[in-house]
Amino acid sequence: MDERFKLLKVLVEGNASEHNLGQDIAAGAGTVLMRAGAAEKAAGRASVRIKMPTLHERTVEVLREMIVEGELAPGTRLQELELCDELGVSRTPLREAIKVLAHEGLVRLEANRGATVTTPEMPEVADTLEMMGLLEGAAAMLCAHRASDAELAAILKAHEDLICHSGNEELQEYFRANIRFHDLIMKAAGNYVLCDMHVKLGSQLKRVRASRVDKSSLDEREAFIDEHQSIVDALLRRDGMGAFQAALIHMASIAQARDSQPSK
C-alpha cells in the first residue's frame, strides 16, 4: 500500500507503537467531535434556511457530473457555445462554473486556448484518498450524532439501492448510488466547511471511481457493500466512534483496491 495511506492503515490495523499512535489520533478526533456534537445538542441546533441553488451553482453541478461520469473525457476542450446550448445557459454562468471546476482540478485554463478537461494524476489521487479518508471519518462521526431520522433513512435507502445495482449489468447505477451514499452522510454531518472540502477533493476521486467501476470485480463490490453496512450499523446505533472507524476502514480498502489495479 502507498506510504500516503500509512496513517489510515495504522488507524484500523497497525502494530505496537504505531497502532497506539493511530488510536490516540482517532480517539482525540473522536473526543473533540463528540464534545462538539453534545454541546450542539444541548444548545439546540439553529434553524437553517434551505437555499435554492443559483443558476451558476446548478451549472457547476451539471458540468461537474458530465466530467465525473466521463461524458466530457480527459483532454476534451470545452466548447462554450455548444455547452451553452446544451445546458440552456448564457456564457456568464458557464464561465463562472468553469472557473470553479478549474479550482477543483477538473478543468485546466490556458491563455488563448480556453478550458480543457484534465487527466487525473495518480500521485494527486493518492493524496486525495488519504485526505478523503479523514474527511469521511469525521463526517460519519458527526452524522451519527447530528443526523435526523429522515436523513438516516435516506442513507439507508442509498445503501439498499447500492445492493440492488451491484450486479455486472447495472454498474453505472451502482456508481451513482455509491456517490449518493457518501454525499448524504457528508451533508447530514451538518458542517459546511467539511462539506465544501469534500466537494473540492471528491470530484477527482469520483472521476477515478467512475473510470474504474467497470473494472471492479463482484467480490470487490460485495466487500465494499459489507463495509458500507458497518458504517450504516454504526450510524443507526448513533455510535460516532464506530462510524469513524468503519469509514476509515472503507477508505483504506478503496486505496488498497486502487493500488492492486494493474498500471497501464
Keywords:
Four Helix Bundle (Hemerythrin (Met), subunit A); about 260 residues; globular; about 5% strand; 2 domains; Arc Repressor Mutant, subunit A; mainly alpha; 2 strands; 11 helices
Structure description:
With 264 residues, the chain is mainly alpha-helical. The chain has two domains: 3-48 and 121-260, GntR ligand-binding domain-like (Four Helix Bundle (Hemerythrin (Met), subunit A), Up-down Bundle); 55-117, Arc Repressor Mutant, subunit A, CATH 1.10.10. 72% of the residues lie in helices and 3% in strands. The chain is built from eleven helices and two strands; from the N terminus they run αααααββαααααα. Strands 1-2 form a two-stranded antiparallel ribbon. A hairpin with a 3-residue loop joins β1 and β2 (114-117).
Given as residue ranges, the uncertain stretches (5+ residues, pLDDT < 50) are: 14-25, 39-44, 46-50
CATH architecture of the largest domain: Up-down Bundle
What pattern of helices and strands is seen along the backbone? Answer: HHHHHEEHHHHHH
Q: How confident is the prediction overall: mean pLDDT? A: 79
Class of the largest domain in CATH?
Mainly Alpha
Tell me about the biggest sheet?
2 strands, antiparallel
Q: So what's the overall shape? A: globular
> What fraction, in percent, of the residue positions are helical?
over 70%
